[in-house]
Amino acid sequence: MNPLNNFKNYMIDFEVHRNSKHISTVKGLKNSYQGKNFIEFFPDVDVKIGDILTNFNINYYVIDIDTQTWMGEISAIKAYYQTTPPNNLQSNSTVFNINNASNSIIGNQQSAILNNSSFNIDDLKQLIELYGNNDKEQLLELTSLLKECIDKDDFRKSKLSKFSDLISKHSWLPTAIAQIISAFIQK
Questions:
Q1: Which residue among 38, 151, 162, 172 has its CA within the 20 to 30 Å range from the CA of 71?
Q2: What are the residues whose beta carbons fall under 8 Å from the beta carbon of 154, sequence distance 6 or more?
Q3: Greater confidence, 47 or 116?
Q4: Long-range Cβ contacts of 67-76 (<8 Å, 24+ apart)
Q5: Which residues lie across from 29 on neighbouring strands?
Q6: Residue-averaged pLDDT of the chain
């Protein structure tokens, strides 16, 4: 028997939001340990880092996920949270850069995180860490090839074509690549 069952009557509903879409409503139990706040869910609940959990108009921003085990089995998912938006979470408001609109994204795109011509390979690596998920190894390989193209001033369509499926899979990636190439061309 899962020990979390003992607290089932104390669980409250949380709406799970991912990429600005309501995914589900699940039962969870707010808790804390050593100053870290978390919400415990049964192991079959789909909650991920970056999700926003909402209860009574309070947003809980999931910043880490861990599991709890009991008798050799996963008994709970712990979603560590904070109640202020993380620094890397973008605002839903539209941004207008009137003074210098070159290399800016104007609008409210989900991944509108690039707005300057100094974006570089290291910035791309940070994006890969944030959003690369299971494709990190391939994305880092793409990054190495892109750096090689810049170093050798050799941009041929065929060089990046083997990554076309990967590029189309990650909506933030084409903008990042274009930003790096644009910064290179402007030098």
A1: 38
A2: 148
A3: 47
A4: 67/43, 68/40, 70/2, 70/3, 74/43, 75/2, 75/3, 75/4, 75/43, 76/2, 76/4, 76/40, 76/41, 76/42, 76/43
A5: 40
A6: 79
